[in-house]
C-alpha cells in the first residue's frame, strides 16, 4: 500500500511533461551562451517544448526542430556546435550577436543545414575548410566578422551553394579562381576585405547563374576579363573602389540582364564602348572617379536610366538631349569633367529629377525651365560653370529644393521672389554671379535656411527685417554687394548665427541693440561700410567670437573693455572714429594694426595718439619718462661696459671662437657648453626638422643629452599656407626659453640649457632613447606599440599639453603638436617636446598672442587656420586630435593613399562608408577594439571643424582616463605630491662660469 502511494507520488504532475532530447540540446545551448537581454528566458516552458520557444521552428509533421533564428538577440560566446546534434536543423541564423572565438570545424556535422547566417558577429581565425562538406548548404553569410587568411580551396566544391557572402572580414589572400566552379552560385559578395592585390579571375565568367557580383574594395588590379560578358543573368555588377584599369570592355555590353553597374573609383580610361544600347535593363550606372575620356554617348542616354553618375572623369562635349527623354531619371551627377554646351532644354520635363550636380564643368547657356517640373528636385548643384541668364521663375515654385548652389557662374537678373522663400532649402548659394535687386521679404518663408551665401553679386537695397525670422540661420555672408540701410533690429534674434560677413557694402546706421543673443557667433565682419555710433559693450559677451573686423566704418566712442575677455584670432577696429584709452590688454605692439586710423584713440602704442590730450592732463608724466630714459641709458652703458670687461676676461681664458657663446641654464649642469660644442659633428645627428638639426651627445660623465641646433631664418615645411620668413629676436627668444626652462612636468621634455651666438642657437634637452612617436609608429616597428602603450602615450601627451594650456602663466600654446614632437623615454612614457621655441623663432616680431606666421605641419593644421591665420589653444587641441587618430589608425596624417583628404577626413569618410573596423589599426590586437573606439571618438571630438566643439585639454585628459579606469591605477604613482609637476626654485639654476 505504502509502495503504491510512493509510486503514485513519484509519477505526479511535475514529471508528466518532460523535455524531449532536442529540447535538452537547446537548453544546453542556452547555458553555453551569455544572454544579457534574457532573450532565451522563455526556453524553460515545458508545454509544446521546444517547438514553441522563441526563435525555434519545427517541422509540422515530425515536430523535429527545423530552424533556429536567434538574430539580434545580443547572445555572446562561442558557436554552439552542439546544435548539429539536431538531426533536421536546416536553418541557423545568429546574425548580429556577439558569437566569438573561431568557427569550429565540426560545424560540418550539421548535415541538414541549408542556410547558415552568422553575419555581424565576432568570429575570428580562418574560415573552416569543412564548410564545403555540408551537402545541402545553399546560403552562407559570414559578413561582418574578423575571419582572416585565405578562402579555403575546398570552397570550390560546394554542390548547392547559391549565396556566398564574406563581406567585411579580414580575408587577406587573393580571390581564388576555383570560385568559378560553384556553378550554382547566384550571389558572390566578397566586398571590403583586405585581399592582396590581384586580378578578377577569368574563371568567374563560368558562373552563368550569377545574378549579383559584389567585389567592392577588394584590391582588384588589372583589367576586367572578357569572360564577364558570359554572365547573362547578372543584374548587379559592383567592382567599385578597386584599382582596375584599362578600358570598359565591350563584353560588358553583353550583360543583357544587368540593372546596375558600379565601377566608381578605379582607373578606367578611354571612352565608353560601342553597344551600350544593348544594356536595355540598365537603370543605374556609376563610373565616377575614373579617367574616362571622350563624350557621353547618345546611345547610353537613350536607355531608360534612373541614375547616371559620371563625375570626376575627363569627359568632354555636351550632354545629349536624349537624356531628357528618360522617364525615370532621378539622379544625374556629372561634376568635375570638361563638359561643354547647353543643358538639354527638356531636362526634368519627363522625369522626377531629384539630384542634379553638374558643378565644375564648362556648361553655358541658361537654366532649363523644366528642371523641377515633376516637383522632386532636391539638390541643384552647378557651381563653377559658365551658365548665364536669370533663374527661371518656375524654380521659384520648386518646394522640394533643399540645397541650391549656383555660385561662380554668370547668372544675372533678379532672383524670383518665390525662390527666396523656399521652405525646405537649407543652403542657398548664389556667390560670384551678377545677380541684382533686393533680398525679397518672401525670404521669411525659408524656415529651414541655414546658409545664405550671396557675396560678390550686385544685390542692393536694405536687408529685410524678415531675415530675423530665420531661426536656423548659421551663416549669412553677403559681402561685396551694395546693400544699404541699417541692419534690421530683428537680426539679433538669430541665435544660431555663427558667421555674419557683410563687409564691402553700403550699410549704415548703428548696430542694433541686443547682439549679446548671438551666443554662437564666431565671426563678425562688417568692415568697409558706413556704420556709425558706438561699438556695443555687449560684444564683449560673445564668448565664442573669434574673428571681429569692424574696420573702415565710422564707429565712435570708446572701445568696449569686454573685448579683452574674448579669445580673438582677428581683431580689426582700424580706421574708425574711436576715442579714449586703449584697454590695457591691447596696449601692445601686436595690436598696432588693429587700431590704427583712429585719431582719438590713446594708448602706449606708437602712432596712435597725437599726444595732445595726454600732455594737457599729465604734465608730470613727461618728467617721469625723462627720468626713466636717463636711468635706462645709464643702465645700458653699465651693461655694455660690464660686457666688454667680461669678454676680455673670457678671451684671455678661452679660444676666440668659443667665447662668442652665451649660456643660459635652468638646472644644475654637470657639463659645460664647450663640452657640448666639441661633440657636435655630423656623425651624431639623430634627426633633422624644419627648425634645425638634432644631435645626440654623450658627455664625459656618461650622461646623454639631445642638442638641437636651430638655424636662423627658417622656412616651414607646409606649402599650403603662405610662407613668411621669421628672424630671431634674441631678447624675446631668451625670455621665452627661460619660461620653458622653468617648466617641470613629467610629460614635458626637460630643457637643460640654451647656448647662443649671433647666428646659431643650441638647445640642450634630456635625451629620449625611444625617439619620437611619429618615427616609431610609422616605421616598420609600429607593431611594437601595443594598445596599452599607445593609450598611455595619448594620456601622457594630453597631460603635458593640458599643463601648458591650463597650468602655465601665461598659458603656452605649443603651435606644432605632432607625433614627431612627442618623444618616448626608455619605458615608452611620452613627453611633449619642441613647444614654444618654434613660435619664438618664427614670430617675426609679433607678440605671442597673435602670431600671423605659419604654425604647424601638414595634416595637423586646424581648418580655421585657413581663414584666420592665427593660432590658439584650440588649434593645439585639433593637432592633438590628429595624433590620437594616428595612434588609433596607425596611419600618417597625410598620405597619398587618402587622395586629397587628410587623416581626419579619411577617418570620417571611412567610418561613414565602411565602418569602424576599416579605421582601426590592424596591427593592434582586436581585443582592444572597444577601448580603441572610445579613444577614436575623443580624437574625432578634438578634430571637430568648429573650434568651440573641441573639448579643452583638461577635459580631454579626463575623457581619456575614463576610457580605461583600471589602467590608471596601474600607472606609476605621482611621487607623493598633489600635482604631477612643480616649479623649481630659481636659486637652483646653475650659473655661467
Ligand atoms: C567570448 O564571449 C564570452 C562571453 O561574453 C566571454 O566570456 C569570452 O571571454 C569571449 N571569448 C573570447 C575569445 O573573446
Ligand atoms: C572556366 O573558365 C576558364 C577561363 O575562362 C576556362 O578555361 C575553363 O575551361 C572553364 N571551366 C569550365 C568547367 O567551364
From TrEMBL:
The record's Gene Ontology cellular component field reads: membrane; plasma membrane
What is its subcellular localisation?
Answer: Cell membrane
Name the residues that span the membrane: 622-644
Its UniProt entry gives the catalysed reaction(s) as:
L-seryl-[protein] + ATP = O-phospho-L-seryl-[protein] + ADP + H(+); L-threonyl-[protein] + ATP = O-phospho-L-threonyl-[protein] + ADP + H(+)
Top enzyme class, one word, equals transferase
Q: Which residues form the Protein kinase domain?
A: 680-964
Instruction: Cite a single GO BP annotation.
Output: post-embryonic development
Its domain of life reads Eukaryota
Its family remark reads: Belongs to the protein kinase superfamily. Ser/Thr protein kinase family.
Protein's recorded name: non-specific serine/threonine protein kinase
Upper classification of the source organism reads: Eukaryota, Viridiplantae, Streptophyta, Embryophyta, Tracheophyta
Please name the gene that encodes this protein. Answer: LOC108979816
Amino acid at each position: 500500500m505504502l509502495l503504491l502511494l510512493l509510486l503514485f507520488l513519484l509519477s505526479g504532475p511535475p514529471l508528466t511533461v518532460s523535455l524531449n532530447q532536442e529540447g535538452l540540446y537547446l537548453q544546453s545551448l542556452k547555458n553555453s551562451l551569455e544572454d544579457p537581454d534574457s532573450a532565451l528566458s522563455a526556453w524553460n516552458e515545458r508545454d509544446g517544448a521546444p517547438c514553441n520557444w522563441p526563435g525555434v521552428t519545427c517541422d509540422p509533421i515530425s515536430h523535429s526542430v527545423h530552424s533556429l533564428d536567434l538574430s539580434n538577440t545580443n547572445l555572446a560566446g562561442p558557436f554552439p556546435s552542439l546544435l548539429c546534434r539536431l538531426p533536421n536543423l536546416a536553418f541557423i541564423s545568429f546574425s548580429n550577436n556577439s558569437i566569438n572565438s573561431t568557427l569550429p570545424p565540426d560545424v560540418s556535422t550539421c548535415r541538414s543545414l541549408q542556410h547558415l547566417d552568422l553575419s555581424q558577429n565576432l568570429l575570428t581565425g580562418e574560415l573552416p575548410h569543412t564548410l564545403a562538406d555540408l551537402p545541402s548548404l545553399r546560403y552562407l553569410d559570414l559578413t561582418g566578422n574578423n575571419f582572416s587568411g585565405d578562402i579555403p580551396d575546398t570552397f570550390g566544391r560546394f554542390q548547392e551553394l547559391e549565396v556566398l557572402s564574406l563581406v567585411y572580414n579580414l580575408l587577406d589572400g587573393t580571390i581564388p579562381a576555383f570560385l568559378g566552379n560553384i556553378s550554382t552560385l547566384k550571389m558572390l559578395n566578397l566586398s571590403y576585405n583586405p585581399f592582396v592585390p590581384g586580378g578578377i579571375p577569368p574563371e568567374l565568367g563560368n558562373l552563368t547563374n550569377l545574378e549579383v557580383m559584389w567585389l567592392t574594395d577588394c584590391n582588384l588590379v588589372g583589367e576586367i576579363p572578357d569572360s564577364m560578358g558570359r554572365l547573362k543573368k547578372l543584374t548587379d555588377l559592383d567592382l567599385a573602389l578597386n584599382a582596375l584599369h584599362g578600358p570598359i570592355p565591350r563584353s560588358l555590353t553583353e550583360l543583357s540582364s544587368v540593372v546596375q553597374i558600379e565601377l566608381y573609383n578605379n582607373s578606367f580610361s578611354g571612352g565608353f564602348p560601342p553597344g551600350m544600347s544593348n544594356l536595355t535593363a540598365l537603370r543605374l550606372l556609376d563610373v565616377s572617379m575614373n579617367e574616362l575620356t571622350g563624350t557621353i554617348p547618345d546611345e547610353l542616354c537613350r536607355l531608360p536610366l534612373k541614375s547616371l553618375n559620371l563625375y570626376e572623369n575627363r569627359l568632354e562635349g555636351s550632354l545629349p538631349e536624349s537624356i531628357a527623354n528618360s522617364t525615370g531619371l532621378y539622379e544625374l551627377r556629372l561634376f568635375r569633367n570638361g563638359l561643354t554646351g547647353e543643358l538639354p532644354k527638356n531636362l526634368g520635363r519627363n522625369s522626377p529629377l531629384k539630384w542634379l550636380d553638374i558643378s565644375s564643368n564648362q556648361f553655358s547657356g541658361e537654366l532649363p525651365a523644366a528642371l523641377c517640373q515633376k516637383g522632386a528636385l532636391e539638390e541643384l548643384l552647378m557651381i563653377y560653370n559658365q551658365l548665364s541668364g536669370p533663374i527661371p521663375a518656375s524654380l521659384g515654385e520648386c518646394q522640394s529644393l533643399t540645397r541650391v548652389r549656383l555660385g561662380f557662374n554668370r547668372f544675372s537678373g533678379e532672383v524670383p521672389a518665390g525662390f527666396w522663400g523656399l521652405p525646405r532649402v537649407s543652403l542657398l548659394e548664389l556667390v560670384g554671379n551678377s545677380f541684382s535687386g533686393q533680398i525679397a521679404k518672401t525670404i521669411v518663408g525659408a524656415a529651414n535656411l541655414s546658409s545664405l551665401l550671396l557675396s560678390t553679386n550686385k544685390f542692393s537695397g536694405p536687408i529685410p527685417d524678415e531675415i530675423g525670422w530665420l531661426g536656423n540661420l548659421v551663416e549669412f555672408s553677403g559681402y561685396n554687394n551694395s546693400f544699404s540701410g541699417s541692419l534690421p533690429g530683428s537680426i539679433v534674434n538669430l541665435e544660431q548665427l555663427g558667421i555674419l560677413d557683410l563687409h564691402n557694402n553700403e550699410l549704415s546706421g548703428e548696430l542694433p541693440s541686443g547682439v549679446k543673443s548671438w551666443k554662437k557667433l564666431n565671426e563678425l565682419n562688417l568692415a568697409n561700410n558706413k556704420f556709425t555710433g558706438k561699438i556695443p559693450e555687449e560684444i564683449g559677451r560673445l564668448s565664442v567670437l573669434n574673428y571681429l573686423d569692424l574696420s573702415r566704418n565710422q564707429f565712435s566712442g570708446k572701445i568696449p573693455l569686454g573685448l579683452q575677455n574674448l579669445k580673438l584670432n582677428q581683431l580689426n577696429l582700424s580706421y574708425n572714429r574711436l576715442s579714449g584709452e586703449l584697454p590695457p590688454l591691447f596696449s601692445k605692439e601686436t595690436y598696432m594694426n588693429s587700431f590704427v586710423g583712429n585719431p582719438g584713440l590713446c594708448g602706449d602704442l606708437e602712432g596712435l595718439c597725437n599726444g595732445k590730450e595726454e600732455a594737457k592732463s599729465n604734465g608730470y608724466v613727461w618728467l617721469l619718462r625723462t627720468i626713466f630714459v636717463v636711468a635706462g641709458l645709464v643702465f645700458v652703458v653699465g651693461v655694455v661696459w660690464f660686457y666688454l670687461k667680461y669678454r676680455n676676461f673670457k678671451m684671455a681664458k678661452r679660444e676666440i671662437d668659443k667665447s662668442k657663446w652665451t649660456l643660459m641654464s635652468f638646472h644644475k649642469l654637470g657639463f659645460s657648453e664647450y663640452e657640448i660644442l666639441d661633440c657636435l659633428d655630423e656623425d651624431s645627428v639623430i634627426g633633422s626638422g624644419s627648425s634645425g638639426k638634432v644631435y645626440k651627445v654623450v658627455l664625459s660623465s656618461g650622461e646623454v643629452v639631445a642638442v638641437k641646433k636651430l638655424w636662423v631664418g627658417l622656412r616651414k615645411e607646409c606649402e599650403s599656407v603662405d610662407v613668411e620668413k621669421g628672424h630671431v629676436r634674441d631678447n624675446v627668444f631668451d625670455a621665452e626659453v627661460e619660461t620653458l626652462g622653468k617648466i617641470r612636468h613629467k610629460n614635458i621634455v626637460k630643457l637643460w640649457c640654451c647656448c647662443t651666438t649671433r647666428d646659431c642657437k643650441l638647445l640642450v634637452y634630456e635625451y629620449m632613447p625611444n625617439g619620437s612617436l611619429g618615427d616609431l609608429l610609422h616605421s616598420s616597428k609600429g607593431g611594437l606599440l601595443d594598445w596599452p602603450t599607445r593609450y598611455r602615450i595619448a594620456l601622457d601627451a594630453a597631460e603635458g599639453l593640458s599643463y601648458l594650456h591650463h597650468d602655465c602663466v601665461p598659458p603656452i600654446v605649443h603651435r606644432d603638436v605632432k607625433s614627431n614632437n612627442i618623444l618616448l623615454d626608455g619605458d615608452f612614457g611620452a613627453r611633449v617636446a619642441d613647444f614654444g621655441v618654434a613660435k619664438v623663432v618664427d614670430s617675426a616680431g609679433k607678440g605671442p598672442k597673435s602670431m600671423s606666421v605659419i604654425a604647424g605641419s601638414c595634416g595637423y593644421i586646424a581648418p580655421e587656420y585657413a581663414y584666420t591665420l592665427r593660432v590658439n589653444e584650440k588649434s593645439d587641441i585639433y593637432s592633438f586630435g590628429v595624433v590620437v587618430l594616428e595612434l588609433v589608425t596607425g596611419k600618417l596624417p597625410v598620405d597619398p593613399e587618402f587622395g586629397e583628404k587628410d587623416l581626419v577626413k579619411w577617418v570620417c569618410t571611412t567610418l561613414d562608408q565602411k565602418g569602424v573596423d576599416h579605421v582601426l589599426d590592424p596591427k593592434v590586437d582586436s581585443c582592444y577594439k572597444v577601448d580603441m573606439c572610445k579613444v577614436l571618438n575623443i580624437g574625432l571630438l578634438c578634430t571637430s571643424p568648429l573650434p568651440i566643439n573641441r573639448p579643452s585639454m583638461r577635459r580631454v585628459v579626463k575623457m581619456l582616463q575614463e576610457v580605461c579606469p583600471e589602467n590608471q591605477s596601474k600607472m606609476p604613482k605621482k611621487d607623493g605630491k598633489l600635482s604631477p609637476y612643480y616649479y623649481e626654485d630659481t636659486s637652483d639654476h646653475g650659473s655661467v662660469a
